[in-house]
Design brief:
alpha/beta; globular; about 350 residues; 14 helices
C-alpha cells in the first residue's frame, strides 16, 4: 500500500515510462549529476540522469559503468546535441543498453533519435515552443521536458507556469510531458500533475543532497542564497554569443560582463575578426562551472542555481528529499479533495 496514493496515481504514466517508483527526474547538472548523486536518486525512487556535458565517449563509458555498480534501478543519460562526438556518445549508451537518453541544448541532429531507438532506448527532448514540441513528437521523441526560465543553468525566456498552461492542455492527453524550472516543493508538483503533467524534473533541489559531490563551499552558497540571488546572465552585444545562464550573483558574473564589453570594443575597432571575438567569449566562460562545483571557487566560478535555491537550506539524503516532495504533494492533493 503506497503512502502517496493520489500523487502516485497521477504520476503513474510517467513512472511506468521511466521505470522508477516516482516520476521525479533529476535535471542533468554538469559536474554534479555524476555516479553518486544519480545512483542515490534512482535508489531513492526517483530517476537519476548522468550529465554527459563535455565528456569524451571514454569518460561517459566509465561513468555509466560506475553508476551501474551503485544502483540496479533505471537511470538516464543527458547528451548535448551540439557535442562534436554525439554519434559516438549515443553508441556508448547503446553498448550499455541505457534505457533513456535525454537530448538537450538544441534540436536533435538528423539520425540521432533513430540511433537511440535502434538499440531500444527511449528519447526525451526539450522544446521551447509548442510548434517545435509537436514536430519533435512526430519525429519520434517518446517524451518531453518543458523548462521555464526559473531554472538554473541555460534558460529560455518564458516562465514555467506559462509554458505549462500552453503545452499541457495541447499535449498531455496523448503525450508524456514533464515540467521543470523553479520547482522546490511538492505543492508545485501536485499542481502540475493535476494540470496533466506526467511528472516533474528538479535540479537545484538535488544539487546539495548528501550524496552530491559538489564542493562544501558551493553548497554553502546555496544555503545562504535567496531566489533574488539567482540571476540570468546579460548579453551586452548581439554579435557575441551569450546563451542566458541563471546562476548566483558573484564577482565572476561581473567580470564576465566586463569581458564582453572589452571584446565588443576591440571588435568595434576592427582589431580582431568576428569569429575570434566570439571564441574569446566562449573560452572565457569555459570551465567556470567546474571552478565552482569542483574547486569551490564561488566568487569567480559559475554557481548555477534556479530560483528555487531559497528553498534549499541543508544537506539531506536524496531519498529523503524525494520522500518530502511526495509527502508535500500528497498533503496538497488531500486538502483540495477534502
Amino acid at each position: 500500500m503506497t503512502a502517496f496514493p493520489k500523487t502516485t496515481a497521477l504520476m503513474r504514466r510517467g513512472a511506468d515510462f521511466l521505470g522508477s517508483d516516482f516520476a521525479i527526474l533529476c535535471g542533468a547538472m554538469s559536474w554534479v549529476s555524476e555516479r553518486n548523486l544519480v545512483a542515490a536518486i534512482s535508489n531513492g525512487g526517483g530517476f537519476g540522469v548522468i550529465a554527459c556535458g563535455a565528456m569524451t565517449p571514454e569518460l561517459l563509458d566509465a561513468e555509466i559503468a560506475a553508476t551501474k555498480a551503485l544502483t540496479e534501478r533505471p537511470f538516464g543519460v543527458n547528451l548535448i546535441t551540439m557535442h562534436p562526438q554525439l554519434t559516438e556518445l549515443i553508441a556508448v549508451c547503446g553498448r550499455h543498453e541505457v534505457g533513456h537518453v535525454v537530448l538537450a541544448g538544441g534540436i536533435p541532429p538528423k539520425g540521432s533519435v533513430e540511433s537511440i531507438k535502434a538499440f531500444g532506448g527511449k528519447v526525451i527532448v526539450f522544446a521551447p515552443t509548442l510548434a517545435l514540441a509537436k514536430k519533435l513528437l512526430r519525429s519520434g521523441a517518446d517524451a518531453m521536458v518543458i523548462e521555464g526560465m526559473e531554472a538554473g543553468g541555460h534558460i529560455g525566456p518564458v516562465s514555467t507556469s506559462v509554458l505549462a498552461q500552453e503545452f499541457l492542455p495541447e499535449l498531455a492527453a496523448d503525450h508524456l510531458v514533464f515540467v521543470a524550472g523553479g520547482i522546490g516543493r511538492g505543492e508545485a508538483i501536485a499542481g502540475y500533475l493535476e494540470m496533466g503533467a506526467a511528472g516533474v524534473q528538479l535540479g537545484t533541489r538535488f544539487a546539495c543532497a548528501t550524496e552530491s559531490v559538489a564542493h562544501p563551499a558551493f553548497k554553502q552558497a546555496f544555503f545562504r542564497a535567496s531566489a533574488r540571488d539567482a540571476v540570468a546572465s546579460v548579453q551586452l552585444d548581439a554579435r557575441l554569443p551569450v546563451i542566458p545562464v541563471r546562476a548566483l550573483r558573484n564577482k565572476g558574473a561581473e567580470l564576465f560582463t566586463a569581458k564582453q564589453r572589452e571584446v565588443a570594443g576591440v571588435l568595434d575597432r576592427e582589431e580582431i575578426a568576428m569569429a575570434e571575438a566570439q571564441l574569446q567569449i566562449e573560452h572565457y566562460w569555459a570551465g567556470a562551472l567546474r571552478r565552482a562545483v569542483v574547486d569551490g571557487d564561488i566568487e569567480h566560478g559559475s554557481v548555477m542555481a534556479g530560483q528555487s535555491v531559497g528553498m534549499v537550506k541543508e544537506e539531506e539524503p536524496a531519498a529523503q528529499i524525494i520522500a518530502k516532495l511526495m509527502a508535500e504533494s500528497e498533503a496538497a492533493m488531500t486538502r483540495r479533495s477534502a
